[in-house]
C-alpha cells in the first residue's frame, strides 16, 4: 500500500475489502490473505459506504455511484443505473437473494425503487417516487419484495410488478423503524391516540397493532433488535416507565421484560442502545440503586 490507511471495510467470499486513500485517488483492494491474492479491484474518490453485505456480494456507494463486488477484479463493477444515490447508507438499500433493492434517483430524473439482480450493471425501476425526498425513504426486503416507508405510508413493490402498492397508512405522524425480522414486518406508527408497535405479513389485511399503550409517546426511540425468535424494543407504557419489551408477532405474545425502579432506567442513546448478542440482548440500564451498568 502506498497511500494512507489502509482501512478494511467489508468481507465477501473469503476476501477482505480494504480502502486506501492516496493523493490522487482512492483504491479498493481485495485480499485473500496472500501477497499474490491482494489486488486493486476499483478506483474510487473517497471511502466506500457499504449499502449491503452478504456472503456472496457486497454493494457499496461512492461519489453517488453504486458498486457491486464478489471480491474479485472481474466480479467488481459500477452499476450503470441509477446514478445519483443519496448517501444515506443501509436505510436506503436492502439485499434480496443475490440482488439489491435501492431507493435512489437516476440523475435528476426517475426517482424511485430500483432492483439490481447482481449479475449485470443495469438495474430495473420497479416503482416511481418522483414526488418525495428519496433520501428519507426507509426500505427493507421481505419475501422477495421491497417494502418502503415514507411519511405516514408503507408501500410495497415487486420484481416484474407494475408500480407500488399501498400496504398501510398511519392516522398521523410518520412510520418509524421499519424492520423485517423473524418472518414479519415491524414498525412504529400512530393509530390516532399515539404511537403503537405494528406488525405485518406484507399485506393490508395482515397488518395490525400489537400494543395499546396509555402513554401518547411510548416509543421515544425506535431501535428494534432480535433475540432468538423474539423482537426486542424499549417502550414506556405510562405506568412503569421506560422498560424493555419483547414480542413474538402476536398481541398475546407481547409483554414487558424488565421492571426497573425508575422511569428512565434503560439507556437508548446511539452509543449504548440495546444490541443483539449471541441469541440474547445486551443493554445499558440502571436499577435505581447503582449507576449505569450492562445487562443481558
Oligomer kind: single chain
**Structural class label:** mainly beta
* Helicity, as a percent range: under 10%
Runs with pLDDT <50, length 5+?
none
Number of strands: 27
- Contiguous helical run count: 0
> Going across the major beta sheet, what is the strand order?
1-2-3-4
For the CA atoms, what is the radius of gyration? Answer: 21 Å
Proportion in β-strands: over 45%
- How far apart the termini lie comes to 42 Å
Write the H/E string, N to C.
Answer: EEEEEEEEEEEEEEEEEEEEEEEEEEE
Average pLDDT, all residues: 84
* Largest β sheet strand count, sense and barrel closure: 4 strands, antiparallel
The gross shape turns out to be globular
Question: TL;DR of this structure?
Answer:
The chain has no helices and 27 strands. It is mainly β. A 4-stranded antiparallel sheet has the order 1-2-3-4, with no helix packed on it.
Commentary on this structure:
- With 296 residues, the chain is an all-beta fold.
- It is 0% helix and 50% strand.
- The protein is built from no helices and 27 strands.
- The chain has strands at 4-12, 15-21, 26-31, 38-44, 49-53, 58-62, 65-69, 76-78, 93-96, 99-106, 109-116, 124-128, 138-142, 145-150, 153-158, 164-169, 176-181, 184-190, 195-200, 207-209, 225-227, 230-236, 242-247, 254-256, 275-277, 280-285, 293-295.
- Strands 1-2-3-4 form a four-stranded antiparallel β-sheet, with no helix packed on it. Strands 5-6-7-8 form a four-stranded antiparallel β-sheet, with no helix packed on it. Strands 9-10-11-12 form a four-stranded antiparallel β-sheet, with no helix packed on it.
- Strand 11 and strand 12 (124-128) form a beta hairpin.
- The chain is globular and about 60 Å long.
- The mean pLDDT is 84.
